[in-house]
Design a protein that fits this description.
The complex is a heterodimer of chains A (158) and B (85). Chain A is mostly beta strands and 158 residues long. Chain A has strands at 2-3, 10-20, 24-26, 32-41, 49-60, 68-74, 77-79, 105-113, 121-129, 134-136, 148-157. In chain A, a hairpin with a 2-residue loop joins strand 6 (68-74) and strand 7. The relative contact order of chain A is 0.38. Chain B has 85 residues and is mainly alpha-helical. In chain B, strands 1-2 form a two-stranded antiparallel ribbon. The chains are: A mainly beta (158), B mainly alpha (85). Strand 3 of chain A pairs antiparallel with strand 1 of chain B, so a sheet runs across the interface.
């Protein structure tokens, strides 16, 4: 989906969104692309900013020791990541499980990026975990399904 | 229909893979071990369901046992709920 709006001040000039209900799961301890959570935008000006909004639902297997890492990536560069983690420094994460419950969790990202380009720029979410299984758009028992989305809004300063 | 994610999580606990969607064609094998065939995974579906049910029952039994032991120690129901939910 893509729309364009024009006005004065700080104006949204372009919106791109990807929504996915495709279940995704992985046991990868290295970062892997999360299917469907990718969106590409071609900025109209190098001075424009891109507001990235991601809403993800999912979880992990019910093991207390699991650490998940969900990372926002522009092109092949991680952006908006933490710096104080001893296991991972990501953009967001699903919380550790402390019980055997299988409820969906939500993780979100709102990040204002300055790509400084007018070339097509791809934003995506990647995920990894230290043990167990990471789930997106489903819980560990597949009892609950959901959707996740990534929305890119180009902001112009006119 | 087989839940390949669940089958792999239970029966290949150390293997690394990604699954996009719910069908075998969405399986990307990231591990150095051989990728199991769809037939091999399908053959594990029934035993996986049994294993998951047993694990869930074991968790319920453990919670009930903990509740009984805590109650026997004199904790009230509210106090036990505060501890274990």
């Amino acid at each position: 989906m893509s729309v364009s709006l024009y006005g004065s001040g700080q104006t949204v000039v372009q919106i791109v969104q990807s929504v996915t209900s495709t279940p995704f799961s992985t046991t990868s301890t290295s970062l892997v692309d999360i299917t469907g959570l990718t969106a590409t935008i071609t900025p109209l000006s190098t001075s424009n900013k891109i507001l990235v909004q991601v809403v993800m639902t999912g979880g992990s297997t019910d093991t207390v020791s699991i650490q998940t890492n969900l990372q926002l990536v522009r092109g092949s560069t991680s952006i908006g990541v933490g710096s104080s983690g001893t296991v991972y420094n990501g953009t967001t994460a699903f919380s550790n499980r402390s019980t055997g419950t299988q409820n969906l969790q939500t993780a979100g990202v709102i990040y204002l990026d300055s790509p400084a380009t007018t070339s097509a720029t791809t934003y995506k979410m990647q995920g990894q975990l230290n043990t167990g299984t990471l789930y997106v758009n489903r819980d560990s028992a597949a009892g609950n399904g959901s959707v996740s989305s990534i929305t890119l809004m180009e902001i112009a300063y006119v | 229909m087989s839940d390949y994610s669940l089958i792999l999580s239970i029966n290949y606990p150390t293997a690394q893979w990604s699954l996009s969607g719910i069908s075998y064609t969405g399986l990307t094998w990231l591990d150095s071990s051989p990728k199991p065939t769809q037939a091999e995974l399908d053959a594990l579906w029934e035993s996986t369901q049994v294993a998951v049910a047993a694990k869930e029952q074991a968790a319920k039994d453990a919670k009930a046992s903990a509740l009984a032991k805590l109650t026997a120690l004199g904790l009230s129901e509210d106090e036990v709920k505060a501890l274990i939910g």
